[in-house]
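Supplementary Methods. Inverse-folding protocol.

Structures were first reduced to a discrete structure-token string of length 238. This string, shown here, constituted the complete conditioning input.
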């Protein structure tokens, strides 16, 4: 965690950080230096660990990151951001190239080094993209694109806090563990979570042209359906 924070601070020192937050009813909220630094560190460290936490089945993390990266690529192309498009496509390509050997039954494994790297790269790419897009949707799009790992991490923190265990203590109650207990097939679980990630990606891409009340309504509906999905999976039973 210390080195993740140091890595995030290097990104900030290099000139990349979240300086505004969306306010759907008025002008964007300007963050001061302290709040901006804290929010950016939280963003980078949070997404880095989100990808690390889903790396529990063969091919899951590399495939999910590839789908999210392709989502960011298409959004960047739509917005005419060449640099972000190239970075996202490169990350997707590396993930797909690795997936050939990492899909079940895996022949090679990325380990914590690989999953942390993928999470860090996603965090920085989305952070960079948010500085160039419309502030009202720039942070919402990557959050929705990252819907699956973000939800899994958020619920893991609540679950461990509720059960009185340490936040960083591993357990067997992640999305993929729950699905594996019922499906009994790693391949089927991974493909299901690929499809879930793809759905979040398509929703994120559809938001690129929405503004105002339409964008807010779409985000609220996505939240409602996500809550229902999580409840149906039994993820709220701590």
């Amino acid at each position: 965690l210390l080195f993740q924070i140091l890595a995030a601070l290097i990104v900030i020192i290099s000139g990349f950080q979240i300086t505004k937050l969306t306010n759907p009813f008025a002008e964007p909220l300007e963050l001061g230096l302290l709040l901006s630094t804290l929010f950016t560190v939280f963003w980078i460290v949070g997404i880095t660990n989100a990808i690390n936490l889903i790396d529990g089945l063969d091919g899951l993390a590399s495939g999910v990151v590839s789908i999210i990266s392709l989502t960011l690529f298409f959004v960047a192309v739509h917005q005419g951001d060449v640099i972000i498009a190239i970075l996202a496509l490169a990350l997707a390509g590396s993930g797909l190239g690795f997936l050939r050997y990492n899909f079940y039954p895996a022949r090679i494994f990325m380990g914590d080094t690989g999953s942390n790297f993928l999470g860090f790269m996603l965090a920085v790419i989305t952070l960079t993209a948010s500085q160039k897009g419309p502030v009202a949707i720039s942070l919402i799009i990557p959050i929705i694109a990252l819907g699956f790992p973000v939800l899994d991490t958020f619920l893991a923190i609540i679950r461990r806090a509720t059960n009185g265990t340490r936040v960083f203590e591993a357990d067997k109650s992640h999305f993929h563990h729950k699905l594996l207990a019922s499906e009994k097939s790693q391949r089927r679980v991974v493909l299901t979570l690929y499809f879930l990630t793809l759905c979040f990606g398509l929703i994120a891409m559809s938001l690129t042209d929405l503004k105002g009340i339409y964008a807010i309504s779409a985000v609220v509906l996505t939240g409602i359906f996500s809550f229902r999905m999580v409840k149906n999976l039994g993820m709220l039973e701590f």
